[in-house]
Amino acid sequence: MADDPRICLLGLWNSQTRHINATRSCTLKIADICMFTFFMLLSLLRAFMYPHVAKNVLDDFSQTSYLGAIAVAFETIILGIVSFYSHRQSAMYVAEAMYWIASAMSLLVAFGGVFVMYQRQKQHSFQDVNGTWFLTFIPCVVDSTVGGAISPYLAYQNSVTVLLTSFLMWSLGVGMSLVILSLYFWRLMSNQLPPREAIISTFVPVGPFGMGAYSIQQLAVGLASQISQHRYTLERPPQPPNDAATVATIAEGIHWLGILVALAQLGLASFLLIEACFSVYAKVPKTFNVGYWSFVFPCGVYSNAWNAMSLDLRNSGMKGWGATCSTATVMLWLFCGLTSFYKGVWQGKLFFSPGLQGWVEQKEIRVRHEARSNGDNNANLCGDSTGRDSGNPVRRNPLADGTYHCQRGIMTDKNGGNV
Question: Taking Cα atoms as reference points, which of 381, 352, 288, 296 lies closest to residue 57?
């Protein structure tokens, strides 16, 4: 039976399949790093060459919140290093250093973004609240997941420090997301659904709670492992016996506590996911825009949380639901990726540079004032994006997903005639 050629061929097929899948995953991860580096360098170059354009990003909290996407993208690179190079200690040193950089970036976006909203931006109303506000604190939750992933491969002291920091980051991200969620619900009840162009942003609130459920499972496993391995107990009385059975019981209890907290968050995430599906069904977008990527991250972390839960509880129903969500996430990712390449790269009609709106408006007004001062009484209120006087004013109305809807009007004089 052991010499059955069919068994040998099946084993060879499984081995080759795993090798191919690992190669594909590694290739995608390298492509992810290259794309992140390329666009990050472009963003830094633009901020250096046109600082007044970059400053305009700070005037709109929806655009400021998108800075959190930079931290999230950086943190996914760390997770890739852990996934493919956890057997190399040097790679884990690099991942640990990158973890602290990601923590600083997440805290800068969280604290800095909120402070800028207080200090610099205009007065906000409930109508301004939208799903992108959650992006301010999502990096903190993702950073806690990174800490839970790298902690088993670090030295004892470093591992405990990373775990404690990750628990703090998780509490900050999930706690503040709950605060924003209450504002977001009141905005929906008082002002109804977002515009059709930004309706996909209703999926973003799923992200912090789906990722929070996955993260707390990782952190609970990491903490339980440290307690059982090093027999770590609390200092102040009453202290339990420090024998192996008691410590194992404490570790198992912490693991179960993580599962219960994760289930509570998955219940909330499931409710938000269903409501988001209803919202999109009620207002189906007519055209593709960058906001469609709001599908991918929430659905991806939601499916990861269910997959991790199904492994712990050994539940076939959870495995099936997690596999369904994972398949849907892959399909959404392919759709968004291919459509973004076609409309954004091939046609050049998709991407809008954050912060450019205010700079273009200021330039148009300056050109008009110069024309007026030179005696041109027919100077337009605002010109086109090149600064030339186009004859009719262009109004750019900001949308909740960070893009702008351009509308050209006809200038009239005080008698109602065209200028």
Answer: 352
Q: Is residue 329 predicted with pLDDT exceeding 60?
A: yes
DSSP per residue over 233-253, as a string? --SSSSPPP-SHHHHHHHHHH
pLDDT for 370 equals: 65
Residue pair 199/401 in contact by the 8 Å Cβ criterion? no
Q: pLDDT per residue over 193-209, tens digit each? A: 887 777 888 888 999 99
Transcribe 104-154 into DSSP letters. Answer: HHHHIIIIIHHHHHHHTSPPP-GGG--GGGGGGTHHHHHHHHHHHHHGGGS
Is the model more confident about 336 or about 217?
A: 217
Backbone angles phi, psi at 130, to 5 degrees: -150, 175
How far CA 379 is from CA of 370, 373, 410, in Å, comes to 9, 10, 13
Instruction: State which amino acid sits at residue 326.
Output: S
List of residues 6+ apart from 244 with CB closer than 8 A = 231
**Residues paired with 418 in a beta bridge:** 412
Helix (H, G, I), strand (E, B) or coil at 324: helix
Distance CA 24, CA 12 (A): 18
Contact yes or no for 413/395 (Cβ under 8 A): no
Q: What angle do CA 203, 143, 270 make, to 5 degrees?
A: 30
pLDDT of residue 305: 92
- Candidate from 57-66, 98-107, 382-391 with smallest mean pLDDT: 382-391
Name the helix (H) or strand (E) containing 70: helix 68-85
- Residue 214 token pair: 């996955």
- CA count, 13 A, side-chain hemisphere, 394: 24
Query: Is the backbone peptide bond immediately before 241 cis, with ω within 30 degrees of 0?
Result: no
Mean pLDDT of 161-182: 93
Tokens of 79: 């997770």
Residue 67: Cβ within 10 Å count: 20
